[in-house]
Amino acid sequence: MYKKSALFVFVCLVVANIVKAQVADLNMGIIPAPVSVKKVPGEFVLSQETIIAADSVDNKAVKFFTDLLHSKYNLHNQLKANTGSGSNNTIILTANGTDNLPAEGYRLNITPQQVIISGKGAGLFYGIQTLIQLLPLNHGATVKLPCVQVEDYPRFGYRGLHLDVCRHFFSVEFVKKYIDLMAAYKLNNFHWHLTDDQGWRIEIKKYPRLTSVGSMRAQTLIGRYTNRDQQFDGIPHGGFYTQDEIRDVIKYAADRYINIVPEIEMPGHSLAAIAAYPELSCNPSKPYKVGEVWGVTTDVYCPSEYTFNFLQDVLTEVIDLFPSKYIHIGGDEVPKDAWKKSEFCQKLIKRLKLKDEHGLQSYFIQRMEKFVNSKGRSIIGWDEILEGGLAPNATVMSWRGEAGGIAAARQNHNVIMTPGSGGLYFDHGQGPASREPLSIGGNEPISKVYNYNPVPAVLSPDQQKYILGVQANLWTEYIQTEEKAEYFLLPRLFALSEVAWTPLANKDINNFNLRLPKHLAWLDRNGFNYRLTPAIGAIDTMSIGNKLDVNLTPPVEGAKIYYTLDGFKPGETTLLYDHPFTIDVPEGHYRELKTVVITPAGHRSLISHAMVSNISPLAPVTFEGTTPGVKYKVVSGVFTDASQLDAAPVIDSGVTKSFNTMPFKKNKTYGVIFTGYIRIDNDGKYIFATRQEDGASILLDDQVVVLNDAKHNLYHDGGEVLLQKGWHKFTLKYFDGGTSTTNTLRVYMTIPGKPKGELSAESIYN
To answer: Which residues form the PA14 domain (predicted)?
Structure first.
């Protein structure tokens, strides 16, 4: 028996390369990895006596640095103007010698006598951030810095991170914390998603109902919006930022060299605004309310003069607030239902000689772009703005894969890559959904984020120049709290920073994994929530063998690993792992290892569970049937575990040649048990797996082989079993708990010496 997951695969990759990675950390623990790092002998001792000499003592980067030394290290260093004297025990912050550096670049030179950071503007700030990363987490009255020479500059000019505050509202304090993380890892554009169907979050003086009505929804959906039986919490949710609060956040970000790109959605995702001002819709007499469910609504702005005047008024106030060159106008997910039904829209299409409603959307976007351009700004839109013709000066944010970005670059338009397929949708899960918090779905582990390259190889060198950069997005339909937002953000933010900053030739995931523990320890010490993986080397496995080798490493500096061998939950009162060992498994028996990581701040990892069975191959059973297909029993009930199906009342039964569950969908919640006999042609190890939502398990000769029996998103885990040649009893249990959005139930089988293939119910007999 063998169980594996995406986390297992990732950990195995780490373990396979850990020896190689431990040879040397050429990047000195710095994230993102710099262009050039050279370690030199010696160390610089930072103390109260150290002088800080700056070209300008009023420089905001200098102030940031001195404030941090005071607050985090209790150092009150003298700050004075840089005279170029080069005295010992000095940190020099200067723009001298940087004329040949690319934009935002810096040089850091640490010797036993001096620290010199050379950079202009953001470059000086990023040099300071690198120096901060070299400061040890543990220190006394003095702080020792390793001597090093760094030359560094970013791969991309646009390095973005997005936050949706509409689906769930987040405080100014949290937004600042978010910005601090961005600054620490050299990201420079904060995409603030401020309006959507479920809430309007920015004060607009001319239209007060946008916040008095549009910022508050009456209740919020519980669970998935795809559930057939939707339920609501009955609790009002809302909030908005005053213009004074927004000015405060803009200054806070600017002090950290971060530009804020505000997003005002149009013409779709506009239900909150329409609820406040129904005249913005194509059917003003219809009752509207701020959205309470997720997904896409057919209620969109009507392209009327009233709407255009409204949006121009809104954008005027937005532009007056935000100094950003870019204003994001959305443009995504715009159903055309209302426009197709609207007599006004159909006449407008004919009058403007447009082809269809897609052409009307292009007209809408281009008209708004002209207004934004008239204010000296430029628009960014999601890749749907390509439909019907791209606005002349628009920048495209490619989210539905890379196709939109490729098309835009080929039209000589600037592009920011942010595809969900590249691991850049941080609202997706980070492992098998059965072990992760509720999310919108997907599985985007940190390794997938790290390996993404924003420059598509299909573009010519000239076209590649239009790729301005990269961005990750954090949508918050299923992220209700600040702690959960941090969990989904961290540590994937670290991988994003390296994608955005580090030269492609310098990226090395093995070295990145080696640098992670110190940065996770920094998060741990500074009160952040983050996803903590099990110990490096701890795998979730149900396998066959006569021993289990245990060689573990904490994923966070200073963390401890606890384990059990008795099947009980590990914790502080169980065994402390402190050296590698091997567990022997006698013939006919099994051994079970569970581990947990606990950090100094009390964060706990998921519990890993490794079971090794030393059991003889299953002998064949007697079976003489010749009818292809499996028997099925449909049972009624609400299930959370596939084992509950056996005792449930049977409401239907029969024989089928397919594992398709569509015939059973008439039941809101149900379970089905498929049984039959499978012919094994040769002795050997066979691997089975399932792909489904909700729960499923597979048994061979009544022995569990696959155990995917709890609610989860669509994914498949597998298990292995030793089988002798002949017939074997096959049982598949599946349940739909009312959350399944697909009819997918697939079974896979790997025969010794052959690739994995789908197992048809027709190849089983009853």
So the answer is: 625-763
